């Protein structure tokens, strides 16, 4: 479970302070398929980054599986992020000179107990799981946008993290491809019990979510179970 208690985040821009989050509290249960929704500037991506140990909390606390993130040093935060959290980015963040297989295997590179051979074998299995069997040798620019997003899903999945965070995962995809990617994530959620948390303003993502948390001006304005698509 992810427990978010009275979390605030303030950014400093010169002499000005910008409150991105204001005393946000939320419980994200294991196996949730949850969307953080709201317009640009609502705080949804900031909250996603705080959960993912990509940014530091100004005040309050986030607890991941009983570990208080604010109390961790930088090295411990990095280890928590590497082992417990997978990321799916809006811009895919694939390395263009590496093949799809190598991009996925890279997620395992920092695990000392995983050999290079094992990392590549696990990458092939993850690519097969997301429907890209036989395309592991292709570089990102040799793949469509939807295929590149599937590679990023495989990269997040290959570590078998309990939580996957997805920042605007359909933003660069056409509606048909976006639907296919969301269906894939739903299947992974069901088959592996992986918790998915999305940051989005896309109605299509909201329609697939089983729980919808809306933010506005850094505050939660609603939290409802919506059932998702049948």
SSE layout:
Elements (H helix, E strand, L loop, with lengths): L1 E12 L2 E13 L4 E5 L6 H8 L7 E6 L2 E2 L5 H11 E4 L11 H6 L10 H14 L15 H13 L5 E5 L7 H18 L2 E6 L2 H6 L2 E6 L2 E7 L5
Parallel strand pairs: 3-8, 3-9, 6-7, 7-8
Antiparallel strand pairs: 1-2, 1-4, 4-5, 9-10
Helix pairs in contact: 4-5, 5-6
Give the H and E element order. Answer: EEEHEEHEHHHEHEHEE
Q: Describe the biggest sheet?
A: 6 strands, mixed
Supply the number of helical segments. Answer: 7
What percent strand? 25-35%
Q: What does the average pLDDT come to?
A: 91
What's the end-to-end separation, in Å? 25 Å
Sequence stretches where pLDDT stays below 50 over 5 or more residues: none
Q: Kindly provide the radius of gyration, computed on alpha-carbon positions and rounded to a whole number of angstroms.
A: 17 Å
In the CATH hierarchy, what is the architecture of the domain at 2-93 and 160-225 at level 2?
3-Layer(aba) Sandwich
User: Structural class of the secondary elements?
Assistant: alpha/beta
CATH topological fold name of the domain at 2-93 and 160-225: Rossmann fold
Overall geometry comes to: globular
In which range does the helix fraction lie? 25-40%
Biggest sheet: strands side by side, in what order? Answer: 6-7-8-3-9-10
Q: Count of DSSP E strands? A: 10
Name the CATH homologous superfamily of the domain at 2-93 and 160-225: P-loop containing nucleotide triphosphate hydrolases
What is the CATH class of the domain at 2-93 and 160-225? Answer: Alpha Beta
